[in-house]
Amino acid sequence: MNVFRLVGDLSHLLAIIMLLKKIWSSRSCAGISGKSQLLFALVFTTRYLDLFTSFISVYNTSMKVIYILCAYATVYLIYVKFKATYDHNHDTFRAEFLVVPVGGLAFLVNHDFTPLEILWTFSIYLESVAIMPQLFMISKTGEAESITSHYLFCLGGYRALYIINWLYRFYSEGFFDLIAIVAGCVQTILYCDFFYLYITKVIYGQKLSLPA
Amino acid sequence: GAEDQAKDEL
């Protein structure tokens, strides 16, 4: 563990908790892409299947459990509890255009052709594009609430910190995982446009509005 | 292998 990965995980956890709290306390999921949250639940499910078979540390196991529980709780709030506030008309990104190619790629490019490894690879590739429905929704509605912007900033920042973690691990342990690194770079690049708008607008208290 | 260590990451 290094400080970059720790801060990255905490930023990820903060994002997940922040979104869950926003939906719960406002009793509304307006402006939130249910599809992205479904994809994140799928990412955690396929990545943490080793939850019961391999124990790394209390931290590792507890974070995985928290991520999975929060992901499903968020999906439940969006599609069940507060589904009346779910914005069908703007959450129209074709998620199958993400899942199918990513599924195929996971079969073709992986470290080991075993079910657990292919599912882990699928979750790595899927996570890199899972935010697209949310970014698409914001570009359609033309704006995002500030809390949603903070959520996206923390979520995008977590994988950016992981990239620094991978650089650190490469130089200190000689460890690197090309699949995780390439997918992590794609994931972070998808946020660049948003990061620019967030830094130049939201910080000064303006509402974030992506070019439609 | 080196990749196995990746699984210690979230």
From TrEMBL, chain A:
The chain crosses the membrane at residues 65-82, 94-113, 119-138, 150-168, 174-199. Keywords: Endoplasmic reticulum, ER-Golgi transport, Membrane, Protein transport, Receptor, Transmembrane, Transmembrane helix, Transport. One of its GO terms (cellular component) is endoplasmic reticulum membrane. Pfam families: ER_lumen_recept (PF00810). Belongs to the ERD2 family. PANTHER family: ER LUMEN PROTEIN RETAINING RECEPTOR. This is ER lumen protein-retaining receptor. It comes from Strongylocentrotus purpuratus (Purple sea urchin). The lineage of its organism: Eukaryota, Metazoa, Echinodermata, Eleutherozoa, Echinozoa.
